[in-house]
Design brief:
The complex is a heterodimer. Chain A contains 12 helices and 15 strands. By secondary structure, chain A is an alpha/beta fold. The longest helix of chain A has 21 residues. Classes of the chains: A alpha/beta, B mainly alpha. Chain B: Its main location: membrane.
Chain lengths: ~375, ~325
Amino acid sequence: MQRTTHRPRLLTRPGVVALAAAVALTAGACAKSEDDASKDTQSPAAAGAEQKVVTPKPGSKTCAIDAYGAEKLDLKNATVGFSQSEKEANPFRIAETRSIRDEAKKRGVKLLTANAQSQFSKQISDVQDLLAKGADLLVIAPLNSDGWDPVLQAAAAKKVPIVTIDRKINATACKDYVSFIASDFVEQGRRAADQMIEATGGKGEVAILLGSAGNNVTTERTKGFKERIAEKAPELKVVFEQTGDFAREKGQQVTEQLIQSKPGIKGIYAENDEMGLGAVAALKGAGKKAGDVKIVTVDGTRNAVQGIVDGWISGVIESNPRFGPLAFQTLETFTKGEEVPQDVIIQDSAYAADNAKSEISKAY
Amino acid sequence: MAEATLRTVPLDKARVLQWLQTYGVYAGVAALLVVNTVITPHFLSAENFRTQAVQVAPVIIVALGMALVIGTEGVDLSVGAVMALAASVTALYLGYGLLPALLVVALFAAAVGLANGALVALVGVQPIVATLALMVGGRGLALVLLPQLEDLRNPSLASLGSGDVLGIPYLILIAAVLAVLVAFVVRRTTFGRQLLAIGDSRPAAQLAGLPVRRVLIIVYVVCALLAAVAGVLATARLQASDPTSLGNLMELSAITAVVVGGTPLTGGRVNIAGTVAGAVLIQLLTATLIKHDLPPSWTQIAQAIVIVAAVYAARGRGKR
């Protein structure tokens, strides 16, 4: 489902200082806000599903308002502009936008939103529009990493601080933008490998359903998975790597070819939930039983977690799309004049047989 | 010696190219079958042939409509969008039962086909431009109707996607019946001859008093309906409606199947058997590369080579 690139390039292992505590404090209120959101959507309460930050590393870079050159303001009276990259056509984007909206509502902050519909030129003009409409602060989910100069100059001229979420832009932190908040995709791959090793017993042949080619999410989720397999379970062999383009139908078709040419396959690592669900459809169609082939996926959508409950999927590594609380907390801390980390890496959770049933309400 | 070779080459080449255009696609399919039997483990099995046939069935169905359109010297880029639209509409109306949903799907598809046909036949817009508009607009509409993938749990739809008669899946039966039907229309009916005459020369067909506009509009409507059938079948097989990615690049797969199958883009001739074989050829090629775990980019390059070879052979025929 997540066909196009929507995830960031992680260049550095980040660290976090003041944020972790601040976020922990807002956690309770956050869950409440998502309760409210659930009334008009299908998604039920997502208590405990808020993003958490990984343990900060000492010496990680921070950013303060003086160094950035902006002016202090009270977030409550500010207008925040949010530029979304892709249309809300997949669970990740839907949950991401909803989280930003909910958090703005909860804090009583005026929010302006725009959606670039996967067109980068539109995103550039979207952000310029947001600035023209009087946004004091910007939250951007960038479609591309490059090409942001015109926007950055316009924002700098107005001294508008920018936080980017889920994808990094190629620019200087604390000069062109304040902070970048995202998951660590290599780590997601490693954790998927851990689940695969556990599910298969660390022996046999496994396949990878790759995401779209040329996408950093694909590259990083593959890298982490292979690294961890090589390091921890050398007897587990990756014998098949084909792209499923992050789409369910393609995942189904590729898996159908796979299970016929390699009937002895023990496990399938799908780099997103949709391809994993496609693999489940293929296995069902071939008359396999739940658990015959171990499937591990990344994302944490409700359908995939339900797949664990039903026994078809062994594990799901979450990629948490709920950026609202962290993004607004970062902006609040920053505009108060305190330091914020330049890179904020999210601690993603995971689902397996032991917690899928009890925690499915956290899935998006 | 060298001179003799030079003199005989042009003649031989023309003959080879002509043979290639007519039978090349079958030779290609046969070659891939033989090669796979030798090098691909578990290739010679009923399940494998079933998988390949089921996967290629929607492509064949779309390609049938595309062949008709190309026969009129047109092209229809909106088929993938129509598949997505069919998926969305199926999901929306499935609550009323499968048949009512299929009727609404047919209405939507006919509307798209009508719009395409009207733009081409009445307004005189180039087919590539007219259908490009519907390609973009159709998928947009599909996403407005159903913004994200939706799982479908309807027993009749599920059995349409995975059921069979005497071991032959419905998908394959439907594709086969439609192929025979379309081939019959092209070869044995007045409509078929009119279609080819228009593709040969639209002004001549007009002067001869053929109902050019009506035939063109019907052809585009039929093409859209076939794409909708493919969209419903793919949705039934997936048991989910996925308007975001269903039918993506299907227009290219269909055009490839038609061209590789020996139907010239210049219109006036339609080769249905070749179109089916063309779709099967691409399917087997893709399957071979996937089964041997070759990099996905190779599949695209291999397809490109097949297309260039087919177009080259067609060029030889045109010069004859």
